[in-house]
TrEMBL record:
Ranges of residues in domain ABC transmembrane type-1: 22-314
Name the record gives this protein: ABC transporter ATP-binding protein
Location in the cell: Cell membrane
Transmembrane segments: 59-85, 138-163, 169-187, 261-279
Lineage: Bacteria, Pseudomonadati, Bacteroidota, Cytophagia, Cytophagales
An example molecular function term from Gene Ontology annotations: ATP binding
One Pfam family per UniProt: ABC_membrane
The keyword Iron belongs to this UniProt entry's keyword annotation: no
Length: 593
């Protein structure tokens, strides 16, 4: 991406603020003019005093002059303060507004993307967040350095040059001829730094990632007594970072020195030339200070060049991946238009195959019939493709090939919000949002009343436990135990009340009592709904109206529990292994006693 492309992409974000920007630019121009007041006043003062001195006038006669220049400088300072305030304030207003708009756009955009986008490796949680955050940060910094830093300085520089040229062509020429050298040195400085800066960026990320990992895995580190090992690892990262930091400083000091040197050469040349012109009677003595101050106005912005150059480079690096997040048109979930108030939930899969965006082939030629208002269990070893199948049934992904019908319609034809309002899901681990228990249950139905929420909690065997907490429904939901969080997910489901329900190992991580209670809740919810359940719990499988057995992405058997058991195939093997793991014989023995 070139800098022009970046500006082109930024245009729609900058456009709403064009009046503000215009205003800031007018302020900039006025500021550039006032910056030339000092040299002019100084020249006038020196020349007038020199004249007075020649005429032998005393202090009394000079008082008028002093009053005049004090007045002018005073007024100029007041005006200048107002201008600087205006520039900064409006500049900041532009920057903050654009930064907000960029972030809003990015968030709005990613919410429309499908799961494939989020599960791709370049968009892992942390990476995506930093792509967006950094992108917004550096793009707004670019806007800032352009409109707030760069333009005023350069306007100042150009006006000062024009004043120099109009005072004396040769002096202007000397000032101008220093500039290319200065540009060249700045360019070299930025070029030299760009490599180091990239390394530095990587090392900073390594360092903070390393620290986060360390904090997250502290228990494992301690249990294996790996503290010295981890410390050495961090130390090495830190050493590399320090090396790069020192190198950056070294480069900067060298080039900054070189630039000061060049600037001083410019000053000396201007003094010599102006002194010559004064002695040659082509100029008054005041011109010496005049030209030096003007030259300072010319060179000040150039001193900032390498910083601005760096910022542009950073903006280029980060904006590419930021705009890439905005541009992922192919990831936008395509909604069909087919709407129906209440779905029945009869699925029909004919020869369905599916590959994840990263190339993992997860389903092969699946044929399946899921009747409405019945419970269908998916059984198979882990990695068999059961969760993937649920991902397809809930249309988080579309099949590569084959036909997936829901109530006789291709699933892609459905209006997405309409479809998802008809689906409910409970997983092994459910997401609990930061917030209270009440807010978390309410996620199932935003407009639910307090009574409805409590009713749902009761059905999920959660109400009594919540009432025992000091802050009851206002308690922090993330502090609840795994089993309680599971009940929140089930309460949400009761509130949402969808006709189709997917359960993905809903009791896998629970203790026996919780499992039993949650099974009771789920049995209550299953009534008159289409349910697809993945489970390793025999009791839940046996209860199902029909069972599909999956192996390596394929359906290998299907039927009722009894039929499959008698078939003496994969299902029987899994069933018997589960039964053995329960140690049923001994259990029965002790129950008989
Ligand atoms: P199960 O639910 O039967 O344990 P899954 O459906 O989770 O199995 O996984 C089936 C296959 O798909 C596995 O090989 C797994 O690695 C792969 N897989 C699951 N989720 C993803 C994903 N988001 N991206 C890529 N591959 C995936």
């Amino acid at each position: 991406m070139s800098i022009w492309e970046v500006f082109k992409r930024l245009r729609p974000f900058v456009r709403p603020y064009r009046k503000l920007i215009l205003f800031a630019l007018v302020l900039t121009l006025v500021g550039a003019l006032t910056a030339q007041v000092n040299p002019i006043v100084l020249r006038y003062t020196v020349d007038t005093i020199e004249e007075m001195q020649k005429n032998g006038w005393g202090v009394a006669r000079g008082a008028g002059l002093l009053a005049l220049i004090s007045g002018i400088l005073f007024l100029k300072e007041i005006l200048n303060s107002l201008i600087v305030f205006g520039q900064r304030f409006y500049g900041e207003k532009i920057r903050i507004s654009i930064s907000g708009d960029l972030a809003d756009t990015a968030v709005g955009r990613i919410l429309t993307y499908d799961l494939g986008f989020f599960s791709s490796q370049t968009n892992e949680k942390g990476k995506l967040q930093s792509r967006i955050d950094r992108g917004v940060e550096y793009l707004t910094r670019l806007v800032q350095s352009f409109f707030i830093d760069l333009l005023p300085l350069f306007a100042n520089s150009v006006v000062a040059l024009v004043v120099m040229f109009s005072a004396n062509f040769y002096v202007g020429l000397v000032a101008l001829s220093i500039l290319p050298l200065y540009f060249w040195v700045s360019y070299k400085q930025a070029e030299k730094l760009s490599g180091v800066r990239r390394t530095l960026k990587g090392q900073r990320e390594d360092k903070s990632n390393g620290l986060i990992n360390l904090i997250e895995s502290i228990q494992v580190i301690k249990s294996f007594v790996r503290e010295p090992y981890e410390a050495t690892k961090q130390f090495r990262v830190q050493q590399l970072l320090m090396g790069s930091l020192l190198k950056t400083r070294q480069t900067n000091f060298f080039f900054d020195g070189l630039k000061s040197f060049l600037e001083q050469i410019g000053v000396v040349l201007i003094i010599i030339l102006t002194a010559y012109l004064v002695l040659d009677q082509q100029m008054s003595i005041g011109a010496i200070m005049f030209h030096i101050l003007l030259f300072n106005n010319v060179s000040a912005p150039i001193r900032q060049l390498h910083r601005i150059y760096d910022e542009m480079n950073d903006a280029l690096t980060y904006s590419e991946s930021f705009f890439d997040v905005l541009d992922r048109k192919e990831a936008v979930e395509h909604s069909g238009s087919y709407q129906v108030a209440e779905l029945a939930g009869a699925y029909e899969l004919n020869d369905v195959s599916f590959t994840y965006p990263n190339g993992n082939k997860a389903l092969f030629n699946v044929f399946m019939t899921i009747p409405k208002n019945q419970t269908t269990a998916l059984v198979g070893l882990s990695g068999a493709g059961k969760s993937t199948l649920i991902n397809l049934l809930s249309r988080f992904y579309l099949p590569d090939s084959g036909e997936l019908l829901l109530d006789g319609q291709p699933i892609a034809a459905f209006d997405l919000p309409n479809l998802r309002r008809n689906l409910g899901m409970v997983f092994q681990k459910n997401h609990i949002f930061k917030g209270s228990i009440e807010e978390n249950i309410r996620y199932g139905k935003m407009e639910a009343t307090q009574e409805e929420i409590q009713e749902a909690a009761k059905k999920a065997y959660l109400h009594e436990q919540v009432m025992a907490l000091p802050k009851q429904y206002a308690s922090d939901a993330q502090m609840l135990s795994g089993g309680q969080q599971q009940r929140i997910a089930i309460a949400r489901l009761f509130l949402k009340n969808p006709p189709i329900i997917f359960l993905d190992e809903p009791t896998a991580s629970l203790d026996a009592i919780a499992t039993e209670q949650i099974k009771n809740s789920l049995d209550a919810i299953k009534e008159g709904r289409t349910v697809v359940i993945i489970s390793h719990s025999l009791s839940q499988i046996i209860d199902a109206d029909q069972i599909y057995v999956m192996e390596k992405g394929r359906v290998v058997e299907n039927g009722t529990h009894q039929a499959l058991y008698e078939q003496n195939g994969v299902y029987r093997k899994i069933f018997e292994a589960s039964a053995r793991s329960l140690n049923l014989d001994k259990m029965l023995e002790s129950m008989r006693k």
